[in-house]
């Protein structure tokens, strides 16, 4: 049977750029058609920013790879126009269980409160995620949006020229050159772009290896995340089990450091390990096997002039916690609107410096959490192991110990505290929606708040009327009025607290920029100028 990742989805096609007498210049060129590069391309194209995606492949990735897509990623997919496809195909889950040896010590709910459109997580093979993103690109092309994927177009060389980058591209029909006003590297952990610029990661590589196996089987395990410390089938190590669509299960098994990776990946060695875990009576087929090493590293700077890095090309974290692809989507969510405003002449180029400030801060947060997870999962000393095992024992009967258990603190979006884009914060409003924080969803009428905010700069009036559309400081804004009668209990709790009304200035990535309890357009204008990273006074 032909598998999805064997079918070219964006096959090589001749481009007129290849015979142009001088290199054709494009506003944005993205290197890499993985999930992060595709998400960025869609976001830009929806804003009518012309974008070309170059990829040395012509099909989706092999194997499930990233599978856990967080609530925040699903909210981003909604804004990109493909959230329903992801959720409809994915396996929805909110519950996780932690085991120590053969016994379950406790379970947790990642979304215990009501009033959210999307679940805490879905499990979905990366190749499906890429498929739906490619299909969304095709839909945008049908609408006449300026987006193009060029398969089997491998970037061979880069020359930075001040206000653009000259890119040499190799194809089956020979090489050609093009120019990019902005070059965005979304080309993965081994990023050729990063290497061409002689840049590198800083951080830690942990001395441990993990086997990933995608297994096709019929099993009655519930739709939950199961994590084992020191299970009987993998003594002194750890294991993880996730359900995926199509009867595929993801199994992660800790192997230790001193191993022969090629030997461990052979089916004759993998299958006995899996039988120990699943039982001899379970029939299964291997779909994909890989081995990974924990790495918690990042580039020192994500922006290098007119070359910007996003996703795994900019940072790597351990897979426990699902912080890899999810943080990559948050990178693109942060970057796309800033690029558009700069290209449209609505914001100073300095706005792009805030991408580095905010996403480097978020990466440090992810690396800290991933490093702590790794240290807890794989203790580096006997004393550390004694402490860990005592915490696990206590957690079975005592709730106070459970927050200390770290089987991979799961991905949550970062709050950009201290961002140079943050404006005023009114006293007395709920802390969880302060400036810099991601907007929290809530029911509004017969819909959802995040859907109504959309992807523009938005002035939201809760219990206060604002215009539906307006132009201020040379920028078109949308307005959202939620009348007092439409304010749900969840929205009041998350955005107003004890206040009768609140006005929020929302960024296009649905992070809060500023908020007030009284409507003052001069204050909003001043916050808007700060959000656009402009110098000078309010117009």
UniProtKB/TrEMBL annotation:
It comes from Roseibium aggregatum. Gene3D superfamilies: 3.30.70.2450, FAD/NAD(P)-binding domain. SUPFAM superfamilies: FAD/NAD(P)-binding domain. Keywords: FAD, Flavoprotein. This is FAD-dependent oxidoreductase. Pfam families: FAD_binding_3. One of its GO terms (molecular function) is oxidoreductase activity, acting on paired donors, with incorporation or reduction of molecular oxygen, NAD(P)H as one donor, and incorporation of one atom of oxygen. Its cofactor is FAD. PANTHER family: BINDING MONOOXYGENASE, PUTATIVE (JCVI)-RELATED, TRK SYSTEM POTASSIUM UPTAKE PROTEIN. Residues 414-437 are annotated as: Disordered. Residues 27-363 form the FAD-binding domain. The keyword Isomerase does not apply. Signal peptide: none annotated.
């Amino acid at each position: 049977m032909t598998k999805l990742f064997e079918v070219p989805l964006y096959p090589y096609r001749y481009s007129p750029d290849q015979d142009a007498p001088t290199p054709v210049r494009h506003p944005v060129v993205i290197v890499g058609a993985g999930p992060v590069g595709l998400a960025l391309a869609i976001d830009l194209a929806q804003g009518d920013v012309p974008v070309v995606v170059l990829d040395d492949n012509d099909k989706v990735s092999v194997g499930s790879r990233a599978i856990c897509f967080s609530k925040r990623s699903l909210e981003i997919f909604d804004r990109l126009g493909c959230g329903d496809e992801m959720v409809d195909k994915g396996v929805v889950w909110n519950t996780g269980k932690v085991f120590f040896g053969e016994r379950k010590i406790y379970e947790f709910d990642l979304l215990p409160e009501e009033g959210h459109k999307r679940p805490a997580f879905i499990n979905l093979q990366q190749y499906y995620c890429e498929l739906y993103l490619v299909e969304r690109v095709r839909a945008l092309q049908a609408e006449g949006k300026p987006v193009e994927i060029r398969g089997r177009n491998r970037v061979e060389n880069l020359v930075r020229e001040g206000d653009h980058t000259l890119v040499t591209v190799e194809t089956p029909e020979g090489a050609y050159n093009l120019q990019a006003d902005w070059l965005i590297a979304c080309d993965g952990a081994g990023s050729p772009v990063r290497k061409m610029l002689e840049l590198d990661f800083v951080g830690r590589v942990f001395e441990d290896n993990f086997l990933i196996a995608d297994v096709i089987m019929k099993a009655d395990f519930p739709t939950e995340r199961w994590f084992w410390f020191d299970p009987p089938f993998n003594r002194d190590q750890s294991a993880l089990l996730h359900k995926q669509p199509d009867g595929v299960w993801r199994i992660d098994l800790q192997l230790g450091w001193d191993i022969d990776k090629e030997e461990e990946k052979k089916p004759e060695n993998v299958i006995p390990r899996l039988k120990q875990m699943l039982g001899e009576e379970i029939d299964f087929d291997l779909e994909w096997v890989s081995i990974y090493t924990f790495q918690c590293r990042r580039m020192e700077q994500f922006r290098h002039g007119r070359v910007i890095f996003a996703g795994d090309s900019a940072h790597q974290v351990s897979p426990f916690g699902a912080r890899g692809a999810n943080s990559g989507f948050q990178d693109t969510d942060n970057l796309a609107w800033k690029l558009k405003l700069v290209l449209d002449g609505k914001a100073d180029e300095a706005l792009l410096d805030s991408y580095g400030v905010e996403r480097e801060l978020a990466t440090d947060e992810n690396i800290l959490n991933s490093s702590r997870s790794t240290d807890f999962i794989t203790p580096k000393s006997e004393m550390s192991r004694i402490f860990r095992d005592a915490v696990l024992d206590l957690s079975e009967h005592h709730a106070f110990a459970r927050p200390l258990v770290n089987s991979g603190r799961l991905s949550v979006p970062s709050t950009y505290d201290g961002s140079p884009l943050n404006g005023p914060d009114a006293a007395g409003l709920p802390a969880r929606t302060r400036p810099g924080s991601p907007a929290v969803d809530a029911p509004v009428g017969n819909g959802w708040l995040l859907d109504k905010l959309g992807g523009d700069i938005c002035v939201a009036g809760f219990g206060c009327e604002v215009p539906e559309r307006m132009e201020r400081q040379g920028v078109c804004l949308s307005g959202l009025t939620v009348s007092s009668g439409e304010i749900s209990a969840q929205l009041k709790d998350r955005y107003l607290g004890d206040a009768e009304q609140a006005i929020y200035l929302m960024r296009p990535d649905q992070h809060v920029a500023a908020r007030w309890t009284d409507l003052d357009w001069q204050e909003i204008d001043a916050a808007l100028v700060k959000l656009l990273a402009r110098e000078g006074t309010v117009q």
